[in-house]
Amino acid sequence: MRLLIMGPPGAGKGTQALRLQQLLGAPHISTGDIFRANVASETDLGRAAQGFMDKGEYVPDELTNAMVSERLSQPDVEAGFILDGYPRTAEQVLRLEDFLGRRGLALDAVPCLVVPRDDLLDRLTARAAESGRADDTADVVMHRLDVYDRQTAPLLDLYRERRLLREVPGTGSPDDVTRRLFEALHRTVDPADEATSA
Ligand code: ADP
Questions:
Q1: Which residue has its alpha carbon closest to ligand 1 atom 4?
Q2: What pLDDT digit, counting tens, does each position of 92-103 carry?
């Protein structure tokens, strides 16, 4: 299955994507994690990305697209993947489509975690206290939410038009959210089931 999990910072994408990885057996590809690993090991990519990340800005499309193309070219993603944090810009959407299209592939579904803004702020503030992530300070958190609203939220319409979007409430316990996600995906996998359970 080829999935793209979307949602604002703090919605719980990373947590849920890891669970889906275990349940579906498809690798979880988080661009944020890959960038952070590059920053930690001081690669050229990490050095180039760090300034943007620390400010809560998106890393330029060129760097991000190249990194994802390389990751998606590895053999472990042939049977499927769970993309988390990419694409986030209109340009990245086009690049991903081009990449998949050339290989005769397409996304199967785009689950999106929906969480009220106040809850997001609470969660991100709590995470800031324990994560030590340079981009989890209050100012940067606000900025990341703004950047998401401006650049990434509009992309949801596109996936909605393509009937790929599956909006799932991201509130409640992590298990509740996983259950909802799984139900939404189940409907994607087997439309016959949807007909019988409707
Ligand atoms: P968030 O909690 O904001 O969703 P992530 O761990 O997904 O955090 O990403 C952390 C940072 O990594 C982003 O703020 C951005 O600087 C960079 N990043 C991750 N994915 C992308 C992307 N697709 N395009 C550009 N920058 C990205």
A1: 9
A2: 999 999 999 999
Q: Which of 13, 19, 95, 166 is catalytic?
A: 13
> Per-residue pLDDT tens for 146-172?
999 999 999 999 999 999 999 999 999
Q: Report which ligand 1 atom has the smallest distance to the Cα of 56.
A: 14
**In Å, how far from its chain's centre is CA 198?**
29
d(CA 105, CA 123): 36
Helix (H) or strand (E) holding 46: helix 44-55
Residue with CA at minimum distance from ligand 1 atom 16: 53
Distance, CA of 71 to chain centre: 15
H/E stretch holding 122 reads helix 117-131
- Give the count of beta carbons closer than 10 Å to the beta carbon of residue 147: 19
Q: What letter would DSSP give residue 4?
A: E
Set 88, 95, 166, 180: catalytic member:
88
* Consecutive H or E run containing 86: none
Residue 187 a catalytic site member: no
What structural domains does the chain harbor?
A: 2-187 (3.40.50.300)
